[in-house]
Amino acid sequence: MSESFFLSTLKREAKDWESLGLRRHRKTLLTPAGPHLQLEGQRGSALSFLSNDYLGLAAHPDLRDGVAKAARLWGVGSGASPLVSGHMQCHADAEKTLAYFTGFEDALLFITGYMANLAVITSLLTSPEDVVFSDSLNHASLIDACRLSRARIARFSHLDTQHLAELLKATPARRRLIVTDAVFSMDGDCADLSRLVELAEEFDALVLVDDAHGFGVRGSQGKGSLSEDNICSDRVILMATLGKAAGLSGAFVAATKFLIEHFVQHARTYIFSTAPSPALVGAIPMALKLIQEGEFRRVRLKALSARFASGVASWRYPTFFYGTCIIPVLVGNEIQTMHCAQALSHRGVLVAGIRPPTVPAGTSRLRISLTAMHELKDVDTLLFAAEEVGFHRDVVDG
Ligand SMILES: Cc1ncc(COP(=O)(O)O)c(C=O)c1O
Predict the structure, then answer these.
(1) What domain count does the chain have?
(2) Full-prediction pTM beyond 0.85?
(3) Mean pLDDT for each consecutive 10-residue tract of the chain (398 residues)?
């Protein structure tokens, strides 16, 4: 039997993907999240700068206990979507606590941040006469949500609020929504949220702030990027994930009571998906307590970042520090980027090589992420390994 055209073209594309240096490989971890990982098939542990577990809570004993207690009390599965019978007291309590913590009237839980972003954008924008104004480097989940909505998409240049203002002025719309990462996931830089809210006031728009990488690590008591910038506005909708600094999994949206009710009524990824596991939801208050009391963790992150910054001055690749946990090292070429990541990995140091389509072509990079579980000597190990593999010279060896 001859192979189908479908499969043979897929196989040819897979070969091209590989030859362009774009093939991804999963690692199987034999240890919980943390800076020292044991990987399947490798001897000894590796020092990891891969994780978004910024506060080091993912394997924290109190959070493990919190999940175990919640599982005993509520079970593991919610058994149904929230509007059927999946919304338990623990979900209602966690939503109240998250709203209070972030300073909003109400909050709504989602199974992932991806789903939460789809929910907000597709339920607010439903007509080609609506316009979504989206930063050009927004996270894939925001981009996909914009595409899935019926709205026209107006992309503004990264962090360029002047460009955004021009687009807002030039674009008549029934409804306008500005969407942005608060901390950009592959760059580590931060949106000027105050200016975005000013523009929203001036041009009668709402603003969706995706604080996946700011919640827990920025702002007073880790309340996030809106707290960092002292922003409180009815025009703002916050989306934050619970799978990064909070050490759990899932996400929430916080906004006015009216908007949260709108999402309950109209957001398809909320209505047509099983409610989050009560075991994880029941541990949210513990995660928030650890975040709130975790100032020493945030202080440590600053110290690690300062140590790292002091060691990269002579690197041949531009390395950027924005006071967040995400530090990009711009290599440029895809193959060279993966070569660098592999060379470090051979020396027991794991950093992520980030290539298109995650980032634009020609801007491939190493993404180094610091967590409060790292020690200063771990940063020194990374700096030493980078020196060994030639970050200071012309040629990077394998
Ligand atoms: C900026 C940003 N938004 C949203 C998401 C999606 O969140 P989740 O992993 O909970 O789906 C991510 C995850 O990587 C992210 O970096």
Answers:
(1) 2
(2) yes
(3) 92 93 89 95 94 98 98 98 98 98 98 98 97 97 97 98 98 95 97 98 98 98 98 97 98 98 98 98 98 98 95 91 95 92 95 92 96 97 93 58
Q: What CA–CA distance (Å, rounded) separates 106 from 65?
A: 27
Q: Environment class of residue 327 by beta-carbon count within 10 Å: exposed (0-12), middle (13-18) or buried (19+)?
A: buried
Shared-domain flag, residues 136 and 149: yes
Instruction: Note whether 217 and 233 are same-domain residues.
Output: yes
Residues 213, 223, 339, 374: which is the catalytic one? 213
Q: Are strands 176-181 and 352-354 parallel, antiparallel or unpaired?
A: unpaired
Comparing C-alpha atoms, which of 302, 251, 225, 298 is closest to residue 57? 298
* 27 belongs to the catalytic site: no
Last residue of a domain, one of 292, 318, 337: 292
Same structural domain, 304 and 286: no
Q: How far, in Å, from the CA of 216 to the mean position of ligand 1?
A: 14
Ligand 1: residue of 50, 117, 139, 143 to mutate (most ligand atoms within 8 A of CB) is 139
Same domain? 40 vs 69: no
Asked if 280 and 318 sit in the same domain, the reply is: no
Q: Measure the CA–CA gap between 386 and 389, rounded to whole angstroms.
A: 5
- Catalytic residue check, 213: yes
Please give the Cα distance from 117 to 111 (Å, whole number): 11
Report the candidate in 116, 379, 389 with the shortest Cα–Cα distance to residue 239. 116
Is 185 a catalytic site residue? yes
Range of the domain at 164: 61-292
Residue 44 shares a structural domain with residue 69: no
Q: Does residue 363 lie in a domain region?
A: yes
Residues 244 and 145 placed together within one structural domain of the fold:
yes
Strands (E), the chain: 36-37, 46-48, 106-110, 131-135, 152-156, 176-181, 206-210, 236-241, 251-255, 326-332, 349-350, 352-354, 364-369
